[in-house]
Each structure stands twice: as structure tokens, then as C-alpha cells.
Fold these 2 entries.
Entry 1:
Amino acid sequence: PPQTPIRAAMNSIKMLRGDLPSSGDQPSSNLATYFKNCTVDPTQGIQKRLEMLGQVFSQKFGEAVGPHCIVYGRERFTLGVRLYYKVMEAMLESEEKRLSVQNFSKLLNDSTFHMSLLACALEVVMATYEESSFKNRGCSHGEGDQAVRDLCFPWILDVFDLSAFDFYKVIESFIKAEPTLSKDIIKHLETCENLIMEKIAWRTGSPLFELLKREHEAGATEQAEPPAS
Amino acid sequence: SHDYHFGLEEHEGISELFDCD
């Protein structure tokens, strides 16, 4: 039977929590092996970054929704970290098959990669909760709709001071690596992609302009792609 | 995910996107 929007949202949250058990708070033994195989073990760097970003996220969440809701921000961050580790492991397994390598030192020591991946995981968590939590838990202080709007993409980019151009890079690989994503969430990520492609990636300060300038100075030798592709 | 347009080709992946090839 068709579900009410609230029931559908609650089921999505239940499924998200079910797919991300508490054992995922730390890297799995498989993921830890990828870390150890790196020329430079990224484990400590990843841990420190997560601690720092967790504090930033919770603080910004509280500022957006209300100080009494910081605990919900921490809850969402915890789920985001579990999803981040899960997708990271799946991505590395896929890359290992594709490239026949086990040492991903450069990628796993790239701070931008980790921030982009974590931001994407948190965006999935936020989108899953979007329809139900604030309106049902009384966190709104009379401003429920505004709070939900404030947390919508690209809010997470501002929280992490992450460029849209870098965030965009992880989206497709994220969708490929996580087959349990619902149709609604995939649609949401696609909307984020379109927003970035059409607007946000072209804002002042985007790294895209520097890259385009470098390409232009290097001298384009290939023909431009036809509009169809 | 059948409605999502996958743009990366077979020789492309997260490693290339972050200049780790």
C-alpha cells in the first residue's frame, strides 16, 4: 500500500541506520589493510580530520537549527562517518580491480578527497532525514521550515569550506560504490550535480577557472568535444 | 540507479579525478 510521506521518510531513515551498523564507526579490517599498504599510512590523518570536522559540523548544525539540536548533528555526523568508511572501502576495492594496484597512498593522503567523500556521505544522511526529523522532534522553535532549508545543499560545502568542483568529483563514484542508495537519494545527488555544473562550480574563486587557464596556456591540441557528448 | 547518467568511461575512476593516476 502507498506510504504517507512521513512513513516513507521514517522507513528511509530506518534503512539507512540498518545499513550502517555501529561497527562501522571505525575502518573495517579490509579498509585498515588498504591504509597499511600505503607508502604513507593515512590512518592518523584521517582520524584527526574526522575529529576536527565532527566538531565543526555539530557546531554549524547547532547554529543553523538551534543549540538544543547539536546532539542530532552529532548523530548525523556519526552516520555520515559510517557511510564514508563503507563507500571508501567499496571504491578502493573497485579501483584495485580496475587498476591492479593495492597502494593508494596518494589518494588516501589527499585531504580534499576525504573531505569530498565525507561531505557526500553527510549529504546523503541529511537528505534522508530532511523530510521527517525537524518537523517531528520539535527542534524548530517555530522555524522548522527555515531550518530544513538552511541545511539543504550546498550548506555542507560551506561547513567544510569545500569547493563544489571537488565535491562533484566523488558523486558518480559514490553512487556506483553504494548500491543501497534509494532512487530519491540518487535523484537528490543528481540534482546536486546539476546545480554544481550549471551554477556553483562557476562562482568566483572556483578552482575550475585556474584549471581552465592552465589548459589554455598549455595549448589545446585536441579538438573540442562536440556538443552532443 | 538506472535513471542516473553515468559519465565516467571504463578507464576513468576516482584515482584519475583526484590526479592520482
Entry 2:
Amino acid sequence: GGDLPIPRRRSLQRFLEKRKERLVRNMPYSP
Amino acid sequence: PAAAQSRLNEDTLQQRLQALIEGARETWTYAIYWQLSYDSIAGGGDGEGTAFLGWGDGYYKGEEDKGKSKKRCSSVNAVEQEHRKRVIRELNALISGGAVAGAADDAGDEEVTDTEWFFLVSMTQSFLNGTGLPGQAFLHCRTIWLSGSGALAGSGCERAQQGQIYGLRTLVCIPSDNGVVELGSTDVIQQSSDLMEKVNTLFNFNNGGG
């Protein structure tokens, strides 16, 4: 897993983190 | 120091891409900076090598932020969607070193939209100078602005055609000193000199841009 060039690794990390944030934000509220 | 400089450049790129999209009146889905590099191996090692545009950085904004409730996954059948989810799960595991739990698992189970997938796949791509949409924009030092599904589909360019299949209706490549800024949108956006000037200001590093 360590063979990703650093720029892509950081871009990928940002993309995945933001995706999680978006999903949590859009998740329907369930009490 | 080299690593610190590299980190600084990446952070700067990210901030500029974000500023470009978040500050725009138009609804852009993503922005990518294709960075000029030289492949000394492909060039035979006897000169500066073959020029190509590779992934510099990217900022994905998405579609839902502007109130679009319906996600676009129209081109995807169940098998393809499962494949996308699996890739996201594996990438999450790769990035977090295998220690994945909770939110990361949930993120892998959610549908992966067409534009998310297009952006993700873009990270694996590069273009020889003069080839593909970014390569043509850089070689001829001119902006390429494709607006409307017909323009993308009929461009004769594989990246634009792929983008159209994934729901993009505007695809723009704006050259700068050392690369190309690409913007994509699921909206039809007409050419604007404001945007091109903004790219000139933010991404022409040789002239003290930004």
C-alpha cells in the first residue's frame, strides 16, 4: 500500500475524508 | 526541506483549487490541476525527457451542495456500483492503514456517484504534451471550453466523451505556466473571462501568481 505517489495519496486522502463528511451531513436523522 | 517544500506546494495547490471553485458564481463540480512533468525514462535519459501532464492535485466539491437531491448514478448497473463501492472500501483501508471502522465502512457502502468516480479515476491518468484535452490546451497554450453534452460528446476527445457519459455538461481546460487547470460541471456553463483571469492570477507561479 505504500506505492502511491505522495500527491495522489494526499489527494485521495482528502477526497475520502470529504466524502465521509458529505455522507454524514446528508444522512437522514434517526432518533 | 524538500519534503516540506513539496508539502507546502500541495497545500497551496489545494487552497487555490478550492478558492477557484468556492469563489465562483457558477456551480463547478470539481477542479483538477494537471502538473507538467518530465519522464526521463521514456525520454531515453539523454535530455530533459518526455513532457507530460500528471496529477498535481484536485478538489472535488460534488453536486449535492447546491441542493441537488438526486445523485447521478444513471450510467451504472448494480455490478458496476458494487465494484465502485469495493474500490472505495479498499482505498479507505489503504489510506487508513487497514484500521478501518465505523464511518469508513459506511462511506464504502454508500453509492458512488458518476462524478465522484470520474474524479477518482482521473487520479490514475496522465497526458503526453499535446494529447488529450489537458495536453492540447497546454501545447497550444489556449483555453478549451466545452459547454453542453453535445460539445463534450462530439469533441473527439476521449476524456470529454467519458465525462459526458458520467454526467458532465461542461468541461474546461485552462493552461498556466507549468500545467493546466481543468474544471468540470454537471451544469451547462458558458465561457467566462472572469474564470480565465482568476486561473491566471492563481496558477501562474512563475509570474508571482497568487
